[in-house]
Design goal:
Elements: E1 5-9, H1 13-23, E2 28-32, H2 35-44, E3 49-53, H3 61-69, E4 76-81, H4 86-94, E5 99-102, H5 107-140, H6 148-161, E6 167-170, H7 177-186, E7 195-199, H8 205-213, E8 214-215, E9 227-228, H9 230-233, E10 238-242, H10 249-261, E11 263-264, E12 273-274, E13 278-283, H11 287-292, H12 298-304, E14 308-310, H13 321-336, E15 342-343, H14 345-353, H15 359-373, E16 378-379, H16 386-391, H17 393-396, E17 399-400, E18 404-405, H18 406-410, H19 417-431, H20 436-443, H21 447-457
Parallel strand pairs: 1-2, 1-3, 3-4, 4-5, 6-13, 6-14, 7-10, 10-13, 15-16
Antiparallel strand pairs: 8-9, 11-12, 17-18
């Protein structure tokens, strides 16, 4: 395995000599006695860590860090101090320098700083890769993902977009069905015309007909004048009917006529009106089952299923989770004007193993919540929601000492809060091999609180 590369910049020869003596056996070390030469080397070669001595004749830590940042590469900067003074530590913090080491340097002590620094760098580099992938994806379209399932969706969107075929998008709640509909519209010849969304589930039966087809004066009590419906308003454009299974049978019959002949009548009217509209519809229900139960017209069902697209659940495209999480992370950080955090590798493992019953919408809400609540640069396991800690596949099939099989507990639909807390603490204790200090860090609680919880739930087995 290749050694990690360290660039050391110090104007005192004894400091550089000490660095080479302590670190050269374990790291690839290059040293320079002035900042400008070091910058030239940094531009030519890649380094993982830059050691920056406090004694630089013409530069403060902040000025030196700005010049290092100007190189445009990923590396970790660590300050070298003669002694730990408050004003110097504050200067390092303000310069956003990762950490510091007090001289004289000793390999074991230096390693305690460098090893976590290298792990932090891995997270930063992984985030950079995700951002690059994300940028490529966003340039292509707004359907985020590179999994086989989502590539199939993108392929179908591309094939059907330029036609006028009615499209049926199926899938669970939160899978992004409206996003797929909008992408079909954006790629179509109708993209300069209107795109109108109607949520069939949110409108009463009588309102759907009036909203969609319009009505004539006197058609019902309160209809003091005639009114155009969405069909007429969106003539030439695209209408997205969300959750079409909620539409009543009478409106379904009128919709079928519009799809087949481009013709309809307003509510209370006799005049046939012609319009040119493309329909995209969605449902989270099995329409075939709905037709068999008499809740959906068979003729409309067959008309809609000419070109179906299934929006995959998030659990069926888990390889897209890091990309989606990073997309939402970037978005919420920009909106809140916060410093950009990163999700740790360990936290991402948990996120990859969770089932996401609420799909992409649940992941989005989860990331937003973590960003809002976190004040750290790295979002770690202890900041993940309880549902991820509880239902991660890494623990789902395990037995926790003092608690029993987790599968039996997790299958319960209702949890007592104490039961949830007991299981989470037991998992954390088992994960850290009953190291109380590590467990308190993992859970984000104080050690005194942890000891109280352990006694309360009878978990002190070791």
């Amino acid at each position: 395995m290749a050694k990690s590369a360290i660039l050391a910049i110090a104007e005192r020869k004894e400091t550089l000599k000490q660095i080479r003596k302590e670190l050269s056996d374990h790291y690839e070390v290059i040293t320079f006695n002035n900042l400008l030469d070091g910058l030239d080397m940094l531009r030519e070669s890649d380094f993982d860590v830059v050691l920056l001595d406090e004694h630089l004749a013409w530069f403060s830590f902040s000025e030196a860090k700005r010049k290092l940042n100007g190189v445009g590469k990923d590396f970790v900067v660590i300050g070298l101090l003669d002694e730990e003074k408050d004003e110097l530590v504050e200067e390092l913090r303000n310069a956003e320098i990762y950490n510091y080491i007090v001289k004289p340097l000793e390999y074991k002590e230096v390693n305690k700083i460098i090893v976590p620094a290298l792990k932090n760098l891995e997270v930063v580099k992984e985030k950079r890769k995700l951002e690059e992938k994300l940028q490529e994806t966003e340039e292509e379209n707004d359907i985020i993902g590179q999994s086989l399932k989502i590539k199939e969706v993108k392929n179908l969107v591309e094939k059907v977009a330029e036609s006028d075929l009615t499209v049926l998008i199926t899938g669970e709640n939160g899978t992004g069905k409206e996003l797929i509909a909008k992408e079909i519209f954006r790629r179509s010849d109708r993209r300069k015309e209107a795109f109108v969304t109607i949520s069939c589930a949110s409108l009463p039966d009588e309102s759907i007909e009036r909203e969609l087809f319009g009505y004539e004066k006197g058609a019902f009590q309160g209809a003091a004048s005639s009114k155009k419906g969405i069909l007429e308003e969106a003539d030439g454009g695209t209408i997205f009917l969300d959750e079409i299974s909620a539409m009543d049978l009478k409106a379904q019959a009128k919709l079928l006529r519009v799809i087949e002949y481009g013709e309809f009548r307003r509510v209370g009217g006799n005049k046939a009106r012609r319009i040119d509209v493309r329909f995209i519809v969605s449902t989270n229900k099995d329409l075939k089952d709905e037709t068999e139960k008499g809740r959906f017209r068979k003729d409309l069902y067959h008309r809609l299923t000419a070109f179906p697209i299934e929006a995959p659940s998030l659990r069926d495209r888990k390889e897209d989770i890091p990309l989606l999480a990073n997309y939402f992370l970037n978005k919420i950080v920009r909106e809140l004007h916060k410093e950009m955090p990163v999700i740790s590798g360990e936290a991402m493992k948990y996120m990859l193993e969770y089932a996401y019953p609420g799909n992409i919408r649940e992941l989005k809400n989860m990331v937003e919540r973590m960003v809002i609540l976190s004040n750290e640069k790295i979002i770690d396991v202890h900041e993940l929601p309880l549902e991820i800690k509880m239902k991660s596949d890494t623990v789902e099939n395990k037995t926790v000492i003092g608690v029993g099989p987790l599968k039996d507990i997790l299958e319960q639909e209702i949890y007592a809060l104490d039961d949830v807390e007991r299981v989470v603490i037991a998992i954390a204790l088992q994960k850290t091999r009953w190291n109380k200090q590590e467990t308190s860090k993992l859970l984000g609680i104080g050690r005194t609180t942890l000891y109280e919880k352990i006694r309360k739930y009878g978990l002190d087995f070791k």
